[in-house]
Amino acid sequence: MSNERVLEKLRQQFPDAIHESKEFRGELTIVVPKEKIVEVCRFLRDDSELRYDFLSDLCGIDMYTPVNRFGVIYNLFSLSTKHRLRLKTFTQEENPKVPTVTEVWPTANWHERETYDMFGIVFEGHPDLRRMYMPEEFEYHPLRKDFPLMGIPGSLTLPKKLE
Amino acid sequence: MPAYTEEVSRKSKILQALEDQNTSFSINDPLENELVLNMGPQHPATHGVLRLLLRLDGETVIACVPELGYLHRGYEKLAENCTYHEFIPHTDRLDYLSPLSNNTAYVLAVEKLLGIEAPPRCQYIRVIISELARVSSHLLWLGTLAMDVGALTVFMWTFREREKLYDIFEHLTGARFTTSFTRIGGIANDMTPEVERMIWEYIDDFPENIAECEKLLNRNKIFVDRTDGVGVITPEQAISLGLSGPNLRACGVEHDLRRAAPYLVYDKLDFNIPVYEGGDVLARYYVRMGEMKESITIIRQALEKMPQGEIHALKPKKVLPRKERVYTKMEELIHDFMIVNFGVEPPVGEVYHAVEAPKGELGFYIYSHGEGYPWRMKIRSPSFVNLQSLPTMVMGAMISDVVAIIGSLDPVMGEADK
Fold this sequence. Notes:
The structure holds two protein chains of two kinds. Helix content of chain A is 20%, strand content 25%. Chain A contains three helices and seven strands. A five-stranded mixed beta sheet of chain A has the order 1-2-5-4-3, with helices on one face. In chain A, strand 3 and strand 4 form a beta hairpin. Chain B is mainly alpha-helical. Chain B has a three-stranded antiparallel beta sheet with strand order 1-2-3. In chain B, helix 4 packs antiparallel against helix 5 and helix 12 packs parallel to helix 17. The longest helix of chain B has 29 residues. Classes of the chains: A alpha/beta, B mainly alpha. The interface between A and B is large, with 34 and 37 residues.
């Protein structure tokens, strides 16, 4: 399986969904609009030639740009062809929302919870969208670029001092 | 006597409080009630700070919700504020049972981003330390699993073996636990003949020592009864839940990144991948025992094939120069100053590199804006993903099985919580 073949198959199936494709160090990255992401993922998993049945990793990224600030990155692996592929989709700063892929790969569940926790990207249709690491009452999303490294004083409620 | 009356009044206050409480309640049949049990985060069987909420029907688990985050230190945020070299010591603290493996995984990802490759001798040494880390990690897992199901002796014996490994690490890296041994484009020190001799001695003794542990467990009725058919997961479920490493191979899926996407010099070495079909705790035990023996054969071949030569790549602007040259040569001093102050400055781009760590697929995704600091670094930690399949495995099991299943998954919370 070569990168060209993957791209060709995707172009055939979704002529207007491939916004951008890049190759760097032999790894193929494809940018897909978020409306199409579930459809593309399902095709990549079910196609008899591609068979990307293993979602290695899903993570968010904060590009800190005025448009398309937040991105979600899907690192796919195929257990049968041993090929890697990276999908990317972007969403805006206000009310960032991306459809969930938990129905395609159940492993996305915790990854999406972590991404929601760290970036505040809401995954629509997620069965259990809670914070993964931070406490529920925490108001911020720590991996956003505008969250300071030292944290925000008072953002975490600590136990009261004994009198 | 004032002290006496004080005590009486205090007691009566407690009694009064108890009488004020409405203490009457009724249960029709105590066995028909569901119970919610909180296990952890401070529970010896949860291997760290994993917290489980279990819904029990009698003693049978009917629902399980793992809660993570008690060891969250924000390494991904830290990485965005460290140069690539500065982050190497932090990788020790991810899976702290196999720091050498994490060091190797991280520098391989950065080297892929930079487009450089370490010289052959360095690659062989990296293979040897990764496999030693695997043996060390599996030995600890073996001891704790056996202890979780009630066999205490194995724990003592595996810790004796790990002690020898730590002696080797101390001689090789200068530290027993947090090694920080690899460098971008190389390693910190060359392997001395003395360390080589120690490793030879270790791998010559190993088969005998591990056979002793096997003798205690393989035909131990209590051990087999407590592990056979416990925590079963099917291959389809395992793949869809992203299970990796020995846990996946115990379901009959032959997937090992050392074979599927060879890195370092694994394609030049001859080794088997142990695969078992059961998908239960016992199969995971057999897979890891087999893996340790394969690791020993890998180390043996690597020691035999290891060439002499340089251990640093010849990329002066990317690889930290040796200290003695920094102090005596002008060029090296300048490069050292630039690398330490501004970082290695890789090109704009993104890479994902994964290795087969002892726990499973350990991947680093790095997005670079061309600066000395990564714009974004994601750590795909195997323990985090493996823990996600815990609710599937413990469904219908007993509470005491939950302990064995957590033990067999081999989670390290330092890695799961990042």
